[in-house]
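sorry to bug you again but im stuck and you know this stuff better than me. below you get a single protein, a line of residues and a line of whole numbers that encode the local backbone shape. mainly i need to know what kind of three dimensional shape the backbone takes. anything you notice is useful, everything is just below:

***
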Amino acid sequence: MIVMSVVTALVLLALVTQAGIVAVQRAFPPQGEMVEVDGATLHVVDIGPRDKALPIVMLHGASSNLEAMRRPLGDLLARDHRVILVDRPGHGWSTRARRQDSTPQIQARMIDEALHKLGIERAVFVVHSWSGALGARLALDHPGRVAGLVMLAPVTHPWRGGVGRYNEIIATPVIGPLLAYTITLPLGYFVAEAGARNVFLPQTMPDGFVQDSATPLLLRPREFIANAYDLVTLKEAVAAQAPRYGEIKAPVTIIAGEPDKTVRTSIHARPFAALVPNTKLIVLPDLGHMVQNAVPDRVKAEIETMIGRIVPAQAAADESGILP
């Protein structure tokens, strides 16, 4: 009887999950175009004027999608700049063929290929949190694509401890998918808002953030599993790439907060700035992890300052035939 009850409960939860997937996807449909690359299909939203010399590519962190970068920062930038927002492989409306394709190295290759197909030769990359490691990897492996790098509360170095026991369980074969396809979505509806509020601290989460950022898409099993793989493989990935950071030639601006408990500035932003030659480090008091939401005007000003330096240098280099 106990076994039958457990099986029945799992079947019912699986049915609820499938209904939830349909409801979530209807509530948050794709907003852009799909770009096929080796091993993935990437969802890309391209906004803003096309006549600007240097586009801005925005890459979101873990447990989110491109909407977390679009509102308010992406929309603010798009008033004056071409902005390309990308759902990272496996997130939002992007898919990836292999869950294990979770590292910054692999995802950098996929994003580079997508930008090539879109005709984006060089761009300023704006990256948040998990994508700090991704932005660094793009600058290392695809330097011709990266004109500049603006990093918001970035992950760059290995840290003590893990990434949450539940992520390790979800990334475990068999048991992880079993949980993801039964309890994750129903349970997630009750805890998503509280989890998001914690990430904002000491700032207050804006009203309607969970809906405006399409956060419920994360609760779909295939994305929840992909997110877990991204997190459990990140520490080893940044440990491998950190010794190369001194090779980065692109100009870098980092904006982070000292009270950030999600990604500690002392472990990531400060050591990265010490290693990368052309880096401007801005550490703001009382700033939490969601930099793009807390100080969008400051971030916009720093991006435009960087572009204002890069574009004249690029024009001079084009005339001389020498790369800046």
Summary: The mean pLDDT is 94. The two ends are 72 Å apart (CA to CA). The CA atoms of residues 119 and 242 lie 30 Å apart. The beta strands are 33-37, 40-47, 56-59, 83-86, 95-96, 123-128, 146-152, 252-257, 279-284.
